[in-house]
Write a structure and sequence with these properties.
Elements lengths: L19 H20 L10 E5 L5 H9 L4 E6 L11 H10 L6 E5 L11 E6 L10 H10 L1 E9 L7
Parallel strand pairs: 1-2, 1-4, 2-3, 4-5
Helix pairs in contact: 1-2
Length: 164
């Protein structure tokens, strides 16, 4: 009897007020939009970049970033307790990165933009559906981001993506 190795799929969850199937479809659209945005940046896909994923949830954008930039180091931060993703946890984010082969380049931290204290500056910041929920506190968040930037850093936010 021959048993084939079953490839496990990452579990990026279902968004609030959504089904797994609808969330998976939305992520496919978001991935395309983020790849379009990353392609427009003045970096090579082989550059050794430092990327911060703000409100990383289960690591979807962290993994998209690591897949696109082959030599990037990605840090994903999230508190995981107020996530819009059902069942979000630090352990599940780490498992998703491991399944996709990125665990050596992605580091997830249980933190948020107001408590995170980086020891380095970042080249790219990615975020989806997080910063707009901060209300007026987003201005403090933007100020913190500015202090973590390189001279030529970029912020790629999906907070306003509306798929047609």
């Amino acid at each position: 009897m021959c048993l084939e190795k079953i490839q496990k799929e990452p579990g990026f969850g279902a968004y609030h007020h959504s089904t797994r199937a609808a969330s998976k479809k939305l992520r496919a659209v978001m991935k395309g939009m983020f790849i379009d945005a990353l392609t427009s940046l003045p970096f090579s896909r082989d550059d050794k970049l430092k990327i911060l994923d703000i409100g990383c949830g289960l690591g979807f954008l962290s993994c998209v970033s690591a897949e696109f930039y082959k030599n990037a180091r990605v840090t994903g931060i999230d508190t995981f307790k107020h996530s819009s993703l059902k069942g979000s946890s630090l352990e599940k984010a780490k498992e998703n990165a491991k399944i996709l082969g990125f665990s050596d380049r992605i580091d997830f931290k249980n933190s948020d933009i107001f408590t995170f204290t980086p020891t380095e500056r970042f080249d790219i910041f990615v975020s989806n559906l997080v910063l707009h929920n901060l209300g007026r506190m987003r201005f403090e968040a933007y100020s913190r981001l500015r202090s973590w930037m390189q001279a030529d850093s970029f912020v790629v936010m999906g907070d306003y993506f509306l798929p047609s």
